[in-house]
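Worked problem 6 (solution included).
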Amino acid sequence: GAAINSTGKVIGITSQAHSDLLGTLGYIINISSVTNWVNQNKNNTAQTNTLLNRLVEFTKG
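Solution. The predicted structure is:
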């Protein structure tokens, strides 16, 4: 998920969330703290999701 301000700008990304009968608590990482990492890695080739492939094979059998 993402944290969006009133003008529609992304200001944070969800790092963790917890939900129970009383409500939901989430933690947000300030987007400025990860901007450099995103810029350095946004053009990298995506990693293969091996867990998804295993799940698909499991549901076929």
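Discussion: The chain has a mean pLDDT of 89.
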